[in-house]
Structure formats: C-alpha cells, structure tokens
Design a protein that fits this description.
alpha+beta, Jelly Rolls, Arc Repressor Mutant, subunit A, 2 domains, 13-stranded mixed beta sheet, 12 helices, about 30% strand, globular
C-alpha cells in the first residue's frame, strides 16, 4: 500500500452514480491524520475511452509494514464510503484476517467468507498454496477495524518439524480454519491496530515484536482437526507428504502474477529466473504439469472467471483483460477450460 501525499477532490454522489463501481487498483493517499484509499481502475457505464476520475473507497487510520523475506501486516480503523467490489490477485501465502468491528465480505478463488463483528469478533487463517483471485465487497458506511497479515509459506515451512501437524495445513490450497480470539490474541491485535505505520527502528521493532507474539498466541491453538478444506486423503502423517511445489519458482510466479495484464515472453521469464528457456519449460512441466504459456493462459482465464462470476466485467472486457482480441476465441478457450460458457458464468453472477 503506497502512502503518497496528494490533495484529492471529493467526488459527489451524483457523479459517482455514472459508474459501475466494480474494479481493482487501489492506492492509499495520506492527508494529515486521515488516509484515503482510492480506486484507479474500474468498470464504467460510460465509454471506456473516457478517463474516469479516481474514486474514494474508504478513509481512516492505517498501519502497514513489510518485513523483508518475512510477513506483511496491514490494518487499521476505516470508514467505507461507497459500495464497491475490489478485485485483485493474492500472492502465495498464509493469510490471517482478524476482524474486531464491522463486516467483511471477501474470498479467494471459489472460497468465500462473510465475517460480522457486530455479534462477535471473527478471525480466520487461509492457506494460499498458489496465487489466487481475491475479491472483497465494500459497503457504504461500514466501519471496519481489522488486521490482515500475510506469511510466506516457505518462511513457515522452515520453522516446522517434519511431523508438525501445521504441515498438513500448508500442503493444501485454500485450507482454512477459524481462529479463537482469546484474551491474549485480542489484546495483541488491538495494540497493533492502535499503532501507526512504523517510520524508525524502534517503531519497526515494536510492530515486529508484537506481530511475532500474536503468531505465538494463535499457533498455540492450532489443531489439525480444525482444518477445513483438506482432501479426504490427507492425514496428520505429514512426514509422508511430498513437496508439491518447487520454491525456486516462487520469484518467477510473483513476476508472472504482477504482469498478467502485459505480454509475457519466455525470453523475459528466462532472464527473471536465470534459467535457459528449455530448463524453464522442463521445470514448469515437472512442477506444475503444464508449459509456461499454458499456465499463464489458465491464470488469465481463472481471473476472468472470477470477475464474470461476480458481475464485475462484461464478456468483452473479460476477453480483453485475458489477452484475447476476439471474444469468440475467448469464449472457446473459456468453455474448454471450465466446461461452461462465459455467458453462463455472467448469468449466474
């Protein structure tokens, strides 16, 4: 999340009503003690050739901090200003979401969560074994107090014993379980939310120390029987589990996800991965069971499917975003991969 200094004009409601408020591409603007999250890319009723003004999505006080080669923490107290559908890509990681106020309606790929803190505090842990399509619905005048923490999977795996039941959780994409917010977890979460984004050594040490204490309090309550989303064949005998992914491909996967909207050549990927084109193709085939270009095509279609299922784009927009010049070619590829047409997906949104 970028913290840049801008002066942003308010967008009147009658001007907002010109637009279909769905999209992605958010940015955080800082104005004195108040920060505003804006959208810079969204679908609109008016001609796509016209440039739309940025729209304020929420405002409040945020904390954001990333530890190099380790966890990322974001959160704070915010006021959502409009109904809006956020769409983006979540990187491979374990996601921890703690909600202390308001409502959160979000999900990854086909997995959806609706958390409401009005009745009770809520928290979930979700494993993303590969990049996933992320969606979240904002609601007008929804006041939210929350923490989001992303933990790299290899960072966690390096701290697990072979027989640690947490390895079962890390082995399965979209595995998840509900956290219990006891007194220690609640106190640490509230203390972190009350902090600002750190700007010096002592502040960074404070945020990182509190976050590690929070991890300890949460992982103590972990039991393999609490996990939802495991295949029936999974057992706690994690020493017998095979490593499903070669972590040497992680930087390459991050690059691909960041450039799915751009042309991606094998030559460029070879430079990024420091592998020859033939070695890269072999590594992809042995690890993921498909070629590089097939993986990129599938990821673009996966994102198009998620966007269509949530009514965020038209079929023409989905085709363009997925790299197809002709909607008919997109429709054929979509139906071949998913077994149903984009039109059916849009009708069910």
């Amino acid at each position: 999340m970028q913290n840049n200094h801008y002066v942003m004009r308010k967008v009147h409601m009658e001007e907002m009503n010109k637009y279909t408020l769905k999209g992605c591409g958010t940015r955080c603007l800082e104005q004195h003690d108040l920060q505003t999250v804006i959208s810079e890319n969204y679908s609109r009723h008016i001609s796509s050739s016209q440039k739309a003004p940025p729209i304020a999505l929420s405002e409040g006080k945020f904390i954001s901090h990333q530890v190099q080669n380790s966890f990322t923490i974001q959160g704070g107290r915010t006021h959502e200003l409009i109904d809006f559908q956020v769409l983006s890509t979540a990187q491979k990681s374990v996601m921890m979401v703690i909600l202390l106020e308001g409502k959160l309606d979000f999900g990854y790929d086909s997995l959806n969560f609706t958390l409401d803190a009005d009745a009770a505090y809520n928290a979930v842990l979700v494993n993303l074994n590969k990049p996933a399509s992320f969606h979240r619905q904002l609601y007008t005048d929804n006041y939210v107090t929350k923490l989001n923490i992303a933990l790299p999977i290899d960072w966690l795996e390096s701290r697990c014993d072979n027989n640690d039941p947490f390895r079962v959780f890390l082995s399965e994409h979209l595995a998840h379980f509900k956290l219990r917010l006891d007194a220690s977890v609640l106190a640490l979460s509230q203390e972190l939310i009350n902090l600002s984004s750190p700007v010096n050594f002592m502040q960074r040490m404070q945020v990182e120390s509190l976050t590690l204490q929070l991890f300890m309090a949460i992982f103590k309550q972990f039991k393999s029987t609490d996990i939802v989303g495991l295949h029936a064949s999974e057992t706690p005998k994690v020493a017998q589990l095979e490593n499903r992914f070669d972590h040497r491909l992680d930087p390459l996967m991050v690059y691909i996800e960041a450039h799915l909207n751009d042309p991606i050549s094998i030559q460029t990927l070879s430079q990024v991965s420091a592998m020859s084109a033939s070695s890269l193709q072999r590594k992809f085939k042995s690890t993921l069971g498909c070629s590089v270009n097939t993986y990129i095509r599938r990821r673009r279609l996966d994102i198009a499917k998620q966007q269509l299922a949530r009514g965020a784009v038209s079929i023409t927009e989905a085709a363009y975003n997925a790299g197809y010049r002709h909607p008919s070619n997109f429709t054929n590829a979509f139906k071949k991969q998913f077994g149903f047409s984009p039109t059916q997906s849009l009708k069910n949104s």
